[in-house]
Amino acid sequence: MRKAVFPGSFDPITLGHTDIIKRALPLFDEIILAIGTNSNKNYMFSLEERLRFLKESFKEEPKITVTTYKGLTVDFCKEQNAGFLLRGLRNAQDLEFEKAIGQTNYKMSGIDTLFFITSSGKSHISSTVVRDVIRNNGNYEFMVPDVVRKN
């Protein structure tokens, strides 16, 4: 069984995330959307809201599982028998950052990271940008799935 983990804070999930997840689906029997919990980070959306956003966004997709985890992502992958990590790349800075993490993860665990380049028209979307637009009462609806818009 080909299983991958797509980790993140998903605070909130964006159309960039959903693009990568949908494009990765044909490659795997299961994709686990895993919200990493970090008590040192201040989130805009509660863990329950973020879980709901993910579950609602992919409720029609039987190959998607949504859960949370603590600790190292590679340890979670091992617990789940997942041989791959999924990551999205928007720009060269993402590549450099994610490459170092991917190489470290592989050295620690033998788990490969697959990088997906964001689709045209989505490279400007990030959860950080969405949160900033929300905080300043701007229009963020074109960057997130319906479930986040309704929140």
TrEMBL record:
Biological process terms in GO annotation: coenzyme A biosynthetic process
Spell out the reaction equation it catalyses.
(R)-4'-phosphopantetheine + ATP + H(+) = 3'-dephospho-CoA + diphosphate
Entry EC number(s): 2.7.7.3
Identify the residues that bind substrate: 9, 41, 73, 87
State the top-level EC class. transferase
Keyword entries, A-Z? ATP-binding, Coenzyme A biosynthesis, Cytoplasm, Magnesium, Nucleotide-binding, Nucleotidyltransferase, Transferase
UniProt cross-references to InterPro entries, sorted A to Z: Cyt_trans-like, PPAT, Rossmann-like_a/b/a_fold
PANTHER family registered for this protein in UniProt: PHOSPHOPANTETHEINE ADENYLYLTRANSFERASE
Annotated protein name in UniProt: Phosphopantetheine adenylyltransferase
